[in-house]
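## Example record

The block below lists the input lines for one assembly entry, exactly as stored, with component labels intact.
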Amino acid sequence: MICCTDGVLQEYFDGELPVEERDAVTAHLGSCKECSGRLASIAERRQRVTALLNAFEDDVQVHPRIALAELHARAAADDMSPTTKFGRIAALVACAAVVVLAVAAGLGLPLLDVSRTVFEQRRTAAVAHPGGSGYANALGTPGARLVLVEGEALPETGLLVKVEAPVDSTVGEPTGLLMGTSGGDMLLAQDGRVIGLQAGFAQGSDRRK
Amino acid sequence: MNLPAGGGADALGGATRAEGIGVPDTGNFDAIFLEHYPRVVGIIRRVVHDRSRADDLAADVFWKLHRHLPGRNIRNIGAWLYRAAVTAAFDAVKMSTRRRRHEIGAALESTRTQAGDDPLSALLESERQAHIREALSRMKPRQARLLMLRASGLSYQEVASALKLNPRSVGVLLARAEDAFERQMAAVDGDRGTK
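Predicted structure tokens for the full assembly:
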């Protein structure tokens, strides 16, 4: 047999040669010092290269099922994105709703007053407990207080109230929704906890426009 | 949830089995994922040296597969995934702005996981990782990919399928790739040593 090429020796070293070829190379290596030397060089090089490439291989477990669950969640979220068919329809409907509301507001048509019922409840509670511990607690936010703002009044209700709640206090029902708009402050909640108060609702803004 | 299952992937499974890198009999996307994910993430980790970044890139690879499966004839899922994985890994390393972040992330990772409380060891290890990435990025892309796929445990047949090579040429190309890697490592060490 003639001497082996580098490729053949590499394949031999990696155990990738067909059986007949492998046997022939084995027989040749027994009688050829040059090829044996080259094979030894290949083995040494492989050892050095592997030592570098595998030096930082960690033994941290891979969790395919967790990764798969995350991918499923991503796919579900993508279903709602504007790039998907369903997402495009949802975005279209939302845009249409905005246009209708804008037109209605422009024409001076009465808009749905979503906070009025809540406001009325709060007002009743606030009157019953002037100075604090009113409806906010009743709505399930321990530590929240309703504060009557003395000397001020809303045009429609004749009452100005504020909600105060310690940040990071637990929120009951309804979680994640604003819990007070009557005095111009909005109680912000996320994942069941109060994360702050947002000012900016002007007096009389119980009617949301 | 729109991850593909059943029919579309069955055909893929058959074609893939025929080429030697099998997908499970069920042929659905989940089975493909569970079979190939460890290898895909292993290939990427080996290149980027950043575990969390590797996990993200692996997810991106499967996400691409998920997005491209419908209406696309992928004859060999395994080969497609491994090629995509090694390409994504090298692309990530080559993006210079991100590279710096990777190195910082890798250093922090090393500090946390491998070097314990020894910041000097962490620094040296991080520097060594950066040298290896630099050497790999200086190699011809095909050589670097070949080297990493083989180092990740792929057979010659699998490497050949992933990189679209003749299986009988893998041996000689691998020998050249290993030589090139050692040369580039020496060059990087020299460059960094003189700076």
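Chain B touches chain A at residues 1-3, 30, 33-34, 37-38, 41-42, 45-46, 49, 51, 55, 58-59, 62-63, 66, 110, 113-114, 125, 128-129, 132, 147-148, 151, 155-156, 168-175, 178-179, 181-182, 185 (CB under 8 Å). Chain B has a mean pLDDT of 76.
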